[in-house]
Amino acid sequence: MTLRRSRALQSLMSLYFHLRAVPPSALRNSATWFQRLFEDDWDTVRRRLDRHLDEMLDQRYADQHALYAGQAQDGPQDGPQADVVLGGRPVTHPVPEHPPFLILTAAQVTRVADYLGSTGFETLRPTAPPDPEVHTILAAAHRDLTAFYTRTAGHGDAVVKCLLR
């Protein structure tokens, strides 16, 4: 499920996966810089979500990753389908117990956007048939991720990803 408006105000104790579009020229090779990138207040995050500058996935981000990455069953688990959610070059988080940040280059973002734009949700095959509620959640996430990556690729931006609590 992607978070929108009031859902972005969920408890800070819940896990969610945050994707942010960043111009390549603004990227820094600093874990501390990446950490500060995700310290915005919720009003700022909501505005960025509404403009498809950010995207947020709730605890089902692993299911969403499996939905896309599972499409590469006949070949290697790489390529744009594997990059949609959990793909990217890892950068160690400054807090050792936190997972690394993930970085997609502008070229990788374009490949992901092309993949999502040419892949209808109904053609994706989940590893297990989801119940109707989960199906609705995954379909909404697919629409939101497609809009986010399409907008980001159109601007030539990279994507930085972070698991937040």
Structure write-up:
Strands 2-1-5-4-3 form a five-stranded antiparallel β-sheet, with helices on both faces. It contains six helices and five strands; from the N terminus they run E-H-H-E-H-H-E-E-H-H-E. By secondary structure, the protein is α+β, with helices and mostly antiparallel strands. Helix content is 39%, strand content 15%.
List descriptors.
single chain, disordered N terminus, 165 residues, 5-stranded antiparallel beta sheet, alpha+beta
Largest sheet: 5 strands, antiparallel
Query: Which strand order do you get reading across the main beta sheet?
Result: 2-1-5-4-3
Low-confidence stretches: 1-13
Distance between the termini: 16 Å
Task: Let me know the average pLDDT.
Answer: 81
Strand content: 15-25%
Short synopsis of the structure:
This protein is an alpha+beta fold. It has helices spanning 31-37, 42-50, 61-69, 80-83, 106-117, 132-154, and strands at 16-22, 54-57, 89-91, 101-104, 158-164.
Please specify the SSE layout and strand pairing.
Layout: E1 16-22, H1 31-37, H2 42-50, E2 54-57, H3 61-69, H4 80-83, E3 89-91, E4 101-104, H5 106-117, H6 132-154, E5 158-164
Antiparallel strand pairs: 1-2, 1-5, 3-4, 4-5
